[in-house]
Amino acid sequence: MADDGSAIRRRRQCPECGRRFTTVETTSLSVIKRSGVGEPFSRIKIINGVRKACQGRPVTEDDLAMLAQEVEENIRSSGAAEIDAHEVGLAILGPLQKLDEVAYLRFASVYQAFESLEDFESAISLLRHEAETAAADGAKGAKGKSSEKSPI
User: What is the DSSP string of 84-112?
Assistant: First the structure.
């Protein structure tokens, strides 16, 4: 494998002359824009778009690169050769929420076209609810482990 799994390098041998050679097989992933024009998927475009939402936040370039890789892996795992640009944006939201909630809100407000304070409030309420649920689940898991008695 090469290029983070997007290409496969193979050594081959010609059955007639016996010469060995290398081939590189790549998969192509096209993003279909609103205008209907297709262009190759680009991690750089993901990073540049998310970087704007992360301005002033404690997010490193390595964090952005990992986010772009995760987004690409999620998209490629669908097996589709073409994906709508809107779907790329949706694929960014999950990893960005895990990375930085403020950057997530910034990106979501533009991407999902928030039009009022109520849109922000509902997004924040959803984030709070998810955080409370995760904290409650974590507390239950910690209680269950500490209250278990040893069979000895």
Answer: EHHHHHHHHHHHHHHH-HHHHHHHHHHHT
pLDDT tens for 47-104 read: 999 999 999 999 999 999 999 999 998 888 887 889 999 899 889 999 999 999 999 9
Q: Write down the H helix ranges in the chain.
A: 43-53, 61-76, 85-99, 101-111, 117-147
- C-beta atoms surrounding 146 within 10 Å: 7
Question: Which amino acid is located at 140 in the chain?
Answer: K
Phi then psi dihedrals of residue 151, to 5 deg: -70, -5
d(CA 44, CA 149): 52
Per the CB < 8 A criterion, the answer to whether 47 and 54 are in contact is no
Compute CA distances 5 → 25, 73, 82, 149, whole Å: 11, 9, 18, 45
* Per-residue pLDDT tens digits for 1-51: 555 566 788 899 999 999 999 988 877 888 999 898 999 999 999 999 999
